[in-house]
Fold each of these.
Amino acid sequence: MWKVRDDEPGYAFLKESTAPAVNYYEAPIDLIARTGGALPAGREMFINEEPGVGNNPNRNKQHAFHFTADNCIGCHACEAACSEKNDNPAHISFRSVGYVEGGTYPDFKRMNISMACNHCDDPVCLKGCPTRAYTKHVEYGAVLQDPETCFGCGYCTWVCPYNAPQLDPIKGQVSKCNMCVDRLEVNLKPACVSACLGNALNFGVVDDLPENREQAKVSIPGFPDPEITHPNIRFQQIKNMPDEVTRTDGMAVKYHKGDDGQYRPVVDQKKGIDKKWSLSKLSSRENPLVIFTLVSQTSIGAFFLAFWGAQFGVESLQALRDSIMYIPLMAATVGLAGIGMLMSATHLGKPWRFYRGFNNLRHSPVCREGLGMLLYMVFAGIHLLAMLPSNQLFIQLIGDWGRFEIIAAVSGYLALIAAVVGLYYMYRCYRIPARPFWNHWQTASSFFGTAITLGSVLVGLVGVPTFMVIGGDFAQLFTIALAGIVLGSALEGLGLWRHAAAMDTANNEGSVSHYIQCTVFGKSYVLRNALLLLNVCAAGVLLTLAPTALTISAALLLCLLAGVTAIIGRALFYVLVIPTTMPGAFFWKNKDFEEHAREIGLANMPQVGVVAHAH
Amino acid sequence: MIFGRKNRKPITITDKKVVDWKYAVCGYCSTGCSIEVGLNADGKPVASRGKGNAPVNQGKLCIKGIFEHELSGTAGRGVEPLMRNKIYDSFQPASWDQALDRTAAEFKRIQEKYGRDSIAVVSTGQLLTEEFYTLGKLVRGVIGTNNYDGNTTLCMASAVSGYKRSFGADGPPGCYDDFESTHCLMAFGSNLPEQHPIIYWRLKEALEKRKFPLIVVDPRVTMFAQFADIHLPITPGTDLVLLNALAHVILAEGLQDESYIEAHCNGFEELKATVAKYDPVTASRICGIDADMIKNVARIYAKAPSAMSIWTMGINQSTHGTDGVCGINNLNLITGNIGIPGGTSLSITGQCNAMGTREWSSCSGLPGYRMLEKQEHRDEVAKFWGVDADFFPAKRGLQQTDIFPAIESGEIKALWIVATNPLTSMPNQPRIKKALEKLEFMVVQDGYKDCETVNFAHVYLPGALWGEKEGVQTNTERRVNLVRKFVEPPGQAKPDHWVFSELAKRFERGQAMTFPETTSEIFDEMKMLSKGAKRNLDISGMSHDLIEAQRGIQWPMREGEATGNPRLYSDGIFPTPNGKANLLAMDYIEDNEVPNESYPFWLNSGRVVEHFHTRTKTGKIGNLNKFSPTPYMEMNPDSAREQGVKHQSYVRLVSKRGDAVVMVQLTQRVPHNMVFIPMHYHDCVNRLSLGLLDPYSRQPAFKQCAVRIEQIDQKEAGRLNVERRAF
């Protein structure tokens, strides 16, 4: 148990609660009631394995921070007290203070915002986490995360709108605010709250106004839409802010006051309006995911076409299935799926814990994606093995082991089902409200479009030369592959077109991503779009022509272009996303400064608080 | 668990396994917060927390205090004395005997050759009071140079001079409790939330209980200015004009406290005649505050049942800093706001023990606010120490800012620097560097061997830091508070008082005097010297243990009293010849380097909350340093657009002294014609600053000079930025 001091100051103690029965969102504040009585009150929390129940009379009520934004002086005492208590190194902070500001000297206002975990009613981190490292407790409603369970995929850091979970690239795991439940058990406010020097930060049962406060709003300028997670934080902000407030960090976001008095994110043209290539910036720490998604989708697309097309009775595909090259083609799809799985594992902070990625099938799209892809690989592998004895080369070299057509068909269909599930949840993983740029059906059209395009390319690349050598109707396969490229690229193009239109008018961080897309990566973006259009047109023209040496060479070039298009497009997809994070400060929580510090070598000094090179 | 899982997940929360909490007053600023430092079973400091029942901070700490336990593990500490013949040689390790013998021998040689005053000693506000007293005894009683000063000349000298001119003696007359009873608070050039966050919190607590008007005078829109009821964005360096105009309105409208003035003030007629020239319209054209606003503020202040003023470097660091302080004192004297609850002139001091050095170091005179200029004081101290009274000079010597010019002119040949870093902290760094190169001998005594000034030293003496020795410090409200020793100094580093006593032994006069070994014995000696009728600076009722028990005691606390006294001059009697305070008639003289066509921007400087002074401590603690790891400059976005300067890019600033490379932060916090740079960084703001001196305090005007902005290649600037950051 946390030890209360003899001279513990009065402000450090939680006050008696006069909270209503339900919170702002009409959910019961009594957490036992929220479980429908499924769990008893008075349970031990076993903090650091210590037994005993604290003396806090409200321990089964949802608690929340209350932040008087009018009062915050930006003194960092809350952040410091938190890091001191949790012994966090400089590059990790469970709580951070950033600010927005506006006006013209001397009519200038800065509003500091101190933010940690909001222990949400609908914790998207918990739902997203594939390892089930998160638990929302009936004690205080605390959402606690166990770093030892975490394998460092960072998905919780994607879905959280408040940047609460902290991914430590050195330790390869996430940790976060623990609500100081050890202090709560003995009736003390969290360390950050007790340390506040502006009388801005407070804490208690949710929707129970602190002393001397009159307001419990659910949002302030710069705070993401509370509807995403129903966060347990309330605000007082009575002093007027300018109609437009800006951020000092590198994010090209500012906030504009709407007719309803609410502030909404709009584009701040911090990066100018010049169109650039920024090709080197296309490479990011998400590169493994670029590879993972592309190769997995290629694999699925190719498997679909080759297996299902043959099952469907398409002549040339049946011929391909019966040819010597079917096995190498299947081996390529399984191999690509394997490379994809490997890439997704290297993206983890702790790759050797990959097996924990299936622990939250109930909630996490990451789990379902992972399981789908794994099962696809396994069934595709079985299909490969089942088809192997039919291969002429196998028979020549090893002998006739018989035919396993039923196994091959069943495993093939199972692989198809798993692939659809995997690909669908691969898409669902990116439908994140806190990442508006991804949260659009274009993500699906891109993933499925890529599968069709690159799958067709792969089948074409294997099949057409095969038929040319062994003799066969390569014209049909040539047509199918080209049609796939037209279809896939057109689907992707359609999605991108609607996505751009939607982002342009979205008035959220998605519009900001789109602005970056059109400026910082403007030339790369135009190149990709032009290539996509070229792919559709060129494939379309080639479709009308007979396969000659010239058209086949052109088609080969087209395959290469399709690959390049996909790589640029997918890299853009990852580097462009701008989350709905809290505003940062000039140095701390400023991505642009972090990048600069790494570039010039300042990050090599640990006291700069920037990790020199992410793993 | 509502959701997540059925089986229990372990809840692991860091337990630092503290077995013992040690009491200490904070070693950073002058607020004087009481800290408890937690030691684990190995005796390693692992945690800090505010002392719950301490009167000053009531359990709160600012960011620096929260991580103060990490000081003992910081990089760059000196662990053994170092010596070299020439400053271009590399240092060689030495024993304490070798280092001290050489220092004493060099001092003797130089004094013999060039005279007693050819040695200068520049001390600090960072030592314990007992150490200051010992250093004063050594310098005044043994070495005998008159060129002895502290770095407090860079921060508090104007407050000291102003208090002396107005009230006859130094010593802030008010206390933090005054916030609880005041009816109006006016802050001049003070950014409490950033510089003194705990004092701000005390003020905020008072304001939440009972609202009263808060007026902030500052050319920048700081958080404090933003939270004020009235913000006066004054033109830099023109405080005296505003103060004279406020007095003008008060006298013109008959709002003054006639009876208080009659009973307790000298010089009213002269004041009246002078401020008559500063009508609000005339004043508004100089100080940039409109006439109606001046009248409004004067009325609010004068009509409040009690009103108080606080100020910091915005007043002190100015060419007329002392006049500004006296102007504030004038304002409070004519409204009867001295020595009453909620009515005071409270200078918010800078360093943790700036007050201790003012009181006891003998820098500006003799211990206990005694003056060299007074024969009876010289006699008294000479007798107490066992020194010939004639050994003391009859007039104070050079101050820190005059010592460097005296090195230039060749009057001073040797310099002893104690716990200060003039190479980073003095204005006009190019001039300081050049001066230091001329010295025949320089010794630097500091806790950090990577303190930049060490680069110019012949001998380096490693000092013990906060928590590595025991003794007292005095805070802004005259509260004497105690630091207990809780950890051993690294390697052979020694407490500064040990170094002083050991050095004294190497002089004949020193051998004849007694230098007590422990700080509590030194404290007893100071207590004896503090006694005397009508002496305000009386600590004779205190002891180390009593100070810890009461979490600090405000002087005066005379022998036999139960505790200290919150305020001075409550009886209206001032330590002047006739017992009355002096109202001072002061004309404003424009003498700043103001922006012009070639150098179109004001250069303003100040602190940030996460750093202390020249970053030798805070630059090494990641959880502090990360909030501002490199130099930056606040600049107005409108002027940036005109100059083609971009947010978060580098620019090169040029003044008539030199240049500096900084990263640009665009913000409307600063006016169109001003840039603001935090003062903490080496090779930065003081390569540019001019630092014209106040005629009384000799304090430099750090905050007023002119610069221009030049473009710089961004890659080159990034490289320079890294090169210039040793920490």
Note: Chain A touches chain B through 91 residues (CB under 8 Å).
Amino acid sequence: MSAPLLSLSGVTRSFGALTAVDDVTLDVPAGARHALIGPNGAGKSTLFKLVTGALRVSAGTVALAGDDVTRLSEPQRARRGISQTLQHSSLFLSQTVEQNVLLAAQRQHRSRHSLVPRRQAAARERTRELLADVGLAERAGTPVAALSHGERRQVEVAVALACEPTLLLLDEPAAGMSPAESARLVGLLQTLPGSVTVVIVEHDLDVVFALATSVTVLHLGRVLLTGDPDEVRASTAVQQAYLGTGREALFLDDPGPSRTEVG
Amino acid sequence: MLGWFDENLVSILNGFAIGALLFVLAVGLSIVFGMMDVLNLAHGAFFLVGSYLAVNFVAGDSWGGFLAALGVAALVGLLAGGALSGMTEPLARRPVLDQALLTLGISLVVAEVLSIVYGNDVRSVSPPPGLDTSVDVAGSAYPAYRLMLIGVGLVLALAVWLVVERTSVGALVRASVADREMVSAMGIDNRKVKVAVLGIGSMLATVAGVLAAPVYGARPGLDETILLLALVVVVIGGLGSIRGALIGALVIGQVESLGRALLPDVASFILFGTLALVLIVRPRGLFAGKVAHS
Amino acid sequence: MSVQSLPAETAPGAAAAPAAPRRRRPPRALTAVLAVALLAVLAAVPLVADPFSTNTVSRILVFALFAMSLDLLVGLTGLPSLGHAAWFGVGAYTAGLVSTHWTSEGLVTVLAAAVAGALAAAATGWLAVRSGGVYFLMLTLAIGELVHQLAQSLSSVTGGSNGLFGIPSIRVAGTPLTLAGYVYWFVLAVVLLGALGLWLVAASPFGAALRGIRDNEGRMRSLGYSPFRYKYLAFALAGGFAGLAGGLFAGLVRIVNPSDAGFTTSALMLLAVVLGGAGTLWGPALGAAVVVLVRDTFGPTLEGHGPLLLGLVFIVAVYVLPRGVAGLADLRRGRRRAVLPGTDEAPA
């Protein structure tokens, strides 16, 4: 395997007395398709935010392609190639699908300071391609506010890809998608070039095992296990939890009502 | 140093008097926003209502008139705050700007109605009997009324501090500034709290107006000047912070008085400079009482 | 030329718009015809109207540009400024001083006014922009009021509360424009250029980024934009265009009062933006026309109590035009996120 693209070491984040992410050390090799799984409250989304810079770490370091980015702001990290879809839809609701994607695409085409609309041709061309890829070519002119939940997730993916990321973080991209939409998403992600490293948080284990080349299991903010999909499937702890309580409660030793489903 | 102090003693005392007034005014503005998310831009206009009430009751002629002006102003303030609470209720789920625009409109209307009723001349009010003299302070003659203002400001600051830090009502105020959902989750009727808070906040404005009348008089445009100062105080101190309002009021009081006395040409720059300096170091004010909407 | 990405907000009604978005819009030909017709009517005003009316239309044009510059902030960027008249005033005083003491060459005075407006906005705006949220409202109000007071207290420069009067008439290529018609055409030309400039900014990728920040600042950050830079630049640009309008105003009415930089003027323009429809540029221009006409018509009968009417309209507009006002600025309620950031998957 090549050198790690994303390297977390001792990453910790506390909110008062609550430690949401606890001493996570993790290397994701360049080109990997890495899945993060674990029950709600395991700290997956918080970990993503620590990687993107939306949250600051309490301790530890985040390195991207060998460079320590712990002190960089979220936009600075984004400009180094980190891109994400968020667990909760985060789009520009009053604007059209195309305008949403274009906002991401225009950053990559160095045309954003131009006052001449023509110079945006490249960004617009890329936007068209991406919308065709995610299956929204027909909806380019529709305001995002008028889209279904599943379609919005597709826009999110197109926006994330329009950033031309080297590291793509997907937080439950298939949540709320129909089976057909989710199959299309898996197909799209499978066609991503090896230059894009993907880290995905997903509850739908079909999606996870269709994509992932490696899997990390998080539990209560800590890394329980990292391995390839077969190892994770073969692990007795995993199997017990998986077969015993069903998918949603995977690895959850106390699936009480206090753990509320989010997203 | 001591000589400089002596020379400027009157300015410094004036600064404290202005600071005391600004505190009374700003603490209302700050609590109303901190607890209820209402940015009341009519606060300055309410202040001016108080000043004109002092003119009406000829407050200077007798203590009776002065106290009557205070009482009526307090009542008017409470009612205005209650009305404002009702008017902002439909806007509660809308952006803060909507409420700001509403209170902006109210302040324009109130100020114009005042100028229609009282005309555009500067009206002066003399201090109540007994306080219209000068007192000797470290060799300088100083108006007794302003000394009383400083005292009133101190007493009020102490009272507000005691209420907020030591009573259950105060605990509710603090909780509400920190997290309003939590308070409504506790089963307290938010609407009643809102009427009370806006009433008291507006009352502080009208009362400050009466108290200020013997110093500033009453004139059109005073509302904007005073609102500007109150806003600066609140921004410097931190929205929703009572300590912040006190420190901010004392600082701006000195800037307004000592600053104007020493460097009259650039007083506006000093005011802005103070504001800028504080915000560079603390973007949310000295004592950020709450996370503002950003 | 591809026009697909033209933002929906830049509508075809803007007088200077050379092209129109394709989707869900009147056909381009119709838009072009309307634009040309509007231009023709505007250009013909001095030929058919008496000098007084020509003067009124001149002032409407100036305030239209002013309102559009405020819309760049309020409608496009979602930054509701309560002190925008400050930059208008800075521009007006600059143009007045330049033409009194140096040259009244029209282009020089208005360009100086625009530069002064932008510089003044840049010098103070970073405070308001950096603090954001409701602080932005309070700080723009405070900064505007400070400029207003400065205009009043620096009487050796600004003429204090008497105003800066005796401003010489505008010259073009050395010739003073004495007839209202010529002044009008000069104003029209500059306003059209200013509107074109604003429209270009709105239609550019920079304008798209501003709308992105208005709608969802957090997402823009994660896309690699630094919102502060964009907002700050928008603030300075808006100040520059307001200054340009102020410069025209000084040349047109030839007297500048502190109140031109004051709160009431700011409120008046905010009302124009609200009434016209924030974020459309042409809407606020139309709003400015209505506001100026109403003020001129009813102002005299109210014996100087115009702000009374202004205030009442504000109060009514907040309730009657909730969408217009709500679209003004997305001062999102950040409280829920602020309580426990990032713990959305923490145990309840």
Note: The interface with chain A takes residues 1-8, 23-24, 200-201, 203-206, 208-209, 211-212, 215-216, 218-226, 340-348 of chain C (CB under 8 Å).
Amino acid sequence: MADYNKPIPVPDPYVNGPYWAGAKEGKFMLPRCTSCNHAHFYPRLLCPICGARTIVWEEASGEGYLHTFAVQHRAFGAWGEETPFVTAYIDLKEGDRVFTVLRGVDPNQPEEIFKKIGALCKVEFEEANDEVSIPYWRLVG
Amino acid sequence: MSNPSKRAAIVAAAEADKIGYLETPKTDFMLGIEAISNVCKAAGISPKDIEGIANPGNANAYAEYLGIVPKWVDTTAVGGCSYQIHAAHMLAAINAGMFDIGVIVHGEAGYSRRNYPRGGQPQRGGDPLGPDAQFMTPYGIAGAPSNYSHAMTRHMYQYGNTKEDYAKIAVSTREWATLNPRAIMHSKETHPAGGPISVEDVLNSRIISWPLNLLDVCLVADHGGAVIVASERVAKSFPTPPVWIAGAGEAIGHATMLEMKDFTKTSAAYSGKRAYAMAGMGPEDMEMAMIYDSFTITVAITAEVLGLAKPGEGHTLFDPGKSNPGGSFPINTNGGGLSFNHSGMYGMQLLIESYRQLSGTAEDGVNGLPGKQTNAKSLVVNGTGGSLSATGTLVLTADE
């Protein structure tokens, strides 16, 4: 944990609070609007689907599908020392999408990852410091 | 509500004294001031004649520096397409009778600012609680290439395209650059890697963010540019011919790519439709196109949503004999952001070349700068800003 050297987000005490609090406990939390019943990401004060301010937080499945990816051969700071690495967008089972560094794939075989578009991915968490754990997604399908 | 189509025209276009990789670093602002000075000279007016001023975020400083009190200002700053949107707003304001002569100005020391950290404008700090800082930056995202590559992967997946398909875009665009001495990649004289390239060269260039290779990615250089927009009433009183703003549209799809619902389409689907509707024209009426080419994928997607090609087939416009010099449908005749000059917000370079082509001044140049003239009398020009986020589309026409 002490050697986590990647950018660590400042936990937002307002809108994003439950997301980061959940991650610290190993839970993938998502906001859902009780007016239209849709989950959304990134978390908002207002529901981006219907505009209502009736947001509740719920633990989500932590599962989704690989929507698209890229292999980063150039990056800055601590990530610059880890190139090449794979970044990806994951379609959540509950709807909407997250961005992540994708684990369980070989960055030197992009054509193989390409064949996995649509495959199942699961979230896991890495402790970055005493306050923050960061969700990472792993290709499992 | 009156249709503003052709109630205003671009009547002059110019660039800063020098553009490209400047040996003596300049600031954003100085590049813009040079361009205003040069465009006023080209238009035969004094900076004091400017009544309306548009710039992404900094119109007040430009007005003050010129010692003018404008009647109208626009500081729309939505990335590289801001200048297309400025033109759209000027058209509306001129149609409403608010002013007759306006300038859109761009100054951006994309290259100089690397070598001159105190020059230019400070980098934006960003919102530490915003979606980028909270949900993107922790995962090593490193600027535009690292974002756009995800769209290219999805586009390839959805339409069964290969990296070779997109590489054709860079090849055709480079061919145009070889005809433009101001282009950074014009020749071995202007850049060690300049001159013609092949599909194999693109595929063999350094990988940046798979599937994007170096030659799929735009330059980052210094540029200043400005255009004069004038009302129909005065548009024919300038030394160079008017190029009419026949149609204009703007749209925002998202800000962060987290919110890009369909990675294979941009909001140009909407801004383009609005521009065509205002002009009473369609993609089949266009004789050439100027398409923001931050990356090869940007061009493929944009050509498709503008109706110039079927979904997934934007790259076919770049088969030999179509988009390239002498081809049936010229695209990016200045050599593009890929091979001419891209400073960060490339929309002004698009506007300048659009004016040069339709005004018939491409070979004598609007600032004493030669280029390659086409026979086009109409074109669609589309800017894309942010992370495939915002778009501004103009349909421009020349008098027959």
Note: The domain at 8-117+219-398 of chain B is CATH 3.40.47.10 (Peroxisomal Thiolase; Chain A, domain 1).
